[in-house]
């Protein structure tokens, strides 16, 4: 970490030189440009320090004991991913993880229905308690199977804006996800919110049981970029290969 | 008819929501049908999904298997339950649904898929003797060589360790 900072300071020195040369003319505009430039450097430095701090804090358990329920965003992947997530939800203490927000891909018709069934059964179980109503949302996907790469530039943009809008509305304290790609924009925005201090959310990613030898692309991104606070794998081989992952056994 | 029902042994083939003509073609081939017949199966029911290859229907009058097919059904679970053997694509949904019902299973891996991570799961479960793994080309051999009594029952997984980790991370007390 110290090395990165050193490199950064060196970079500032290099960038400063031409500006100082120009200011020999000592006219007002170049002085103000120096001011703008150095304040920009200052802001960038602050953001970088904050970024390093967030990466440092990620994957460390929260220091304060949780006393009240946490708002939870559950990202449903489709098919087998959704089935695994529902298995996890079945054993999670629902009174700790509420209110719950479910997000599924716009073309995935089954996942939200299944989540709704689960929530309805919960209401039936706790007839005495006033339940916190769950919310169900759909998100545009950046790229559907078979879509051309040219049009997917545009659709990715729309998907990112939509994800941002949803995250501003929800601002969850906990994010549960297990792939595939649908969760990446949401997790990226959650990470940016952390860096900017808008909301500190803990991101938990469970790699699919179908991944035995290699992480999926989503899992790999969250692992390498240290965006997930905890990344769980369901096969011991995977844990050997990715030591920061946590082996939890099979969910299915 | 009652006697027929008793000796009816159905092989259920499922491709899920995918298009997997190579598997449908393979189970429709004489070599696979012959191998199944020799193992004592009487009926072949194929769920062919989005594929375009149509298998040949048969009443089983020719002394071989009776063959029937359909594209999709909301009662896949019922078909799985009434089957004596399941031949499935490598999707995790189909695999675990079949294993949980305790049915003997042959998973056929679709080699035409680009990013074929699905074979990882099938091969791992085959190594652990929960199922057999084949390709469309080797299916008839797998059926001929299989010994269903050597398969081990699958114990369903448990999500409580994940829940425990999440709770601990967030600072919730252990139950």
From TrEMBL, chain A:
Pfam families: Alg14 (PF08660). Its main location: endoplasmic reticulum. It is found in: Endoplasmic reticulum membrane. The chain crosses the membrane at residues 34-56, 148-168, 188-206. Signal peptide: none annotated. One of its GO terms (cellular component) is endoplasmic reticulum membrane. Belongs to the ALG14 family. This is UDP-N-acetylglucosamine transferase subunit ALG14. It comes from Flemingia macrophylla.
From TrEMBL, chain B:
Residues 10-165 form the Glycosyl transferase family 28 C-terminal domain. This is Glycosyl transferase family 28 C-terminal domain-containing protein. It comes from Flemingia macrophylla. The lineage of its organism: Eukaryota, Viridiplantae, Streptophyta, Embryophyta, Tracheophyta. InterPro entries: Glyco_trans_28_C, UDP-GlcNAc_transferase.
């Amino acid at each position: 970490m110290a090395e990165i900072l050193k490199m950064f300071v060196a970079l500032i020195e290099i960038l400063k030189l031409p500006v100082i040369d120009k200011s020999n003319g000592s006219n007002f505009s170049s002085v103000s440009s120096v001011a703008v430039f150095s304040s920009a450097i200052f802001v960038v430095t602050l953001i970088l320090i904050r970024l390093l701090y967030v990466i440092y804090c990620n994957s460390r358990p929260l220091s304060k004991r949780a006393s009240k329920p946490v708002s939870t965003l559950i990202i449903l992947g489709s098919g087998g991913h959704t089935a695994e997530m529902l298995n996890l939800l079945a054993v999670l203490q629902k009174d700790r993880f509420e209110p719950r927000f479910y997000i599924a891909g716009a073309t995935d018709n089954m996942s939200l229905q299944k989540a709704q069934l689960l929530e309805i059964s919960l209401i039936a179980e706790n007839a005495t308690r006033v339940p916190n109503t769950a919310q169900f949302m759909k998100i545009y996907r950046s790229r559907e199977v078979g879509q051309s790469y040219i049009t997917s530039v545009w659709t990715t943009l729309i998907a990112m804006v939509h994800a941002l809008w949803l995250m501003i509305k929800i601002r969850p304290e906990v994010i549960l996800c297990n792939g595939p790609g649908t969760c990446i924009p949401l997790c990226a925005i959650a990470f940016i919110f952390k860096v900017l201090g808008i909301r500190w959310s803990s991101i938990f990613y469970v790699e699919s049981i179908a991944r035995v030898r290699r992480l999926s692309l989503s899992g790999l991104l969250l692992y390498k970029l240290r965006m997930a606070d905890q990344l769980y794998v369901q096969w011991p081989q995977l844990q050997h290969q990715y030591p920061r992952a946590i082996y939890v056994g099979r969910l299915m | 008819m009652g006697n027929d029902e008793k000796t009816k042994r159905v092989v259920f083939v499922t491709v899920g929501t995918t298009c997997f003509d190579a598997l449908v073609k393979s189970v429709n081939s004489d070599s696979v049908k012959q191998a199944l017949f020799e193992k004592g199966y009487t009926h072949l029911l194929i769920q062919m999904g989005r594929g375009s290859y149509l298998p040949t229907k048969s009443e089983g009058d020719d002394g071989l298997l009776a063959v029937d097919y359909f594209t999709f059904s909301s009662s896949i679970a019922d078909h799985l339950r009434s089957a004596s053997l399941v031949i499935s694509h490598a999707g995790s949904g189909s695999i675990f649904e079949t294993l949980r019902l305790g049915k003997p299973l042959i998973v056929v891996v679709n080699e035409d898929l680009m990013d074929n991570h699905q074979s990882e799961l099938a091969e791992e479960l085959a190594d652990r003797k929960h199922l057999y793994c084949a390709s469309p080309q080797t299916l008839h051999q797998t059926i001929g060589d299989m010994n269903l009594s050597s398969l081990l029952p699958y114990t369903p997984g448990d999500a409580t360790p994940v829940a425990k980790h999440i709770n601990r991370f967030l600072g919730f007390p252990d139950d």
